[in-house]
Prior knowledge:
The structure is a single chain. The chain is of the alpha/beta class. Helices cover 38% and strands 20% of the residues. Strands 3-4-5-8-9-10-11-14 form an 8-stranded parallel sheet. The chain has a two-stranded antiparallel ribbon with strand order 1-2. A two-stranded antiparallel ribbon has the order 6-7.
Amino acid sequence: MKVNLFKAPHGGQLPLTEMGFGTAPLGNLYRELSEAQAQQTLQAAWDGGIRYFDTAPQYGLGLSEARLGEFLAGVNAADYVLSSKVGRLLEPADPVGFDAGQWINPPCNNIVYDYSYSGVMRSFEASLNRLNLDKLDILYIHDVDAFTHGSREASDCRIQQVMDGGYKALQELRAAGVVQAIGAGVNEWQACETLIGLGDFDLFLLAGRYTLLEQEALDSFLPLCDKKGIAVVLGGPYNSGILATGPIVGAKYNYEDAPTAILERVTQIENICREHKIPLVQAALQFPTAHPAVKTVIPGGQSAEEVQQNLKLLSLKTPAALWSDLKTAGLIQEDAPIPSGD
């Protein structure tokens, strides 16, 4: 698998495989995985050449980190790149009336948002304990966006909390060498762009905001990252599912049922893909990898079979005429970089 070398200004080079693995599904997202299934899924990713793994305390309320830590205990730490996140502390919850939300049978923990200096340090230490490690390659501030907190004003408030406290903790961890690179993992490019103007960040994990459906990030954010040498990890290439399933009944977009306008646009995209005999999901996975700022795409996977399918889709050739026709139809921006097809 192709490896993109990301030069972290304060931590040397990090080799990011063109595809990484997002471990939210290992936290029993929407459906429960057995321990054996979780480990088989990770093994399929490893056997396929994936060497970048992303996790977070939120994913399964600690379960994802614990499962990933168990797997990584059996491989050489020098052979992979690992990221986790801060901003959510996990505190033991009363089992009576406990609501795990989207996570099925996770540990009985409540989430407490905390972007302070001490909150970031506590979150980092707790993640190391669950992962059974003594350092991480990448540490992201998690979800300081309007999507998570409800409004642009609330997002700005969380960003200010980070810059007033948690950012100093991130700087200290990076300077101490227990973290090589720092950034933010969010659902909106606007929050990332704001953070670039406030601090010294190495990379951003952007979920779902540069896909076949959405390219607004091309207008300012991605060119800014390219200019400053800031790497982008692209999560959510299927926009929560609709670019994988197509515009079927119940298709998901941004974790909810897709609205009519999105269903219609995906129908148009899928029709052009069909003309070229290319599955929609193949085009969706490959498209964001063409931008020079995007160093890896992390689609996740709920089974070994899904991981293997993603790996196959990334390796297939897609004709340049498909991208040209999508641009002619106004379905992707004219200035969007396109995969070479090699």
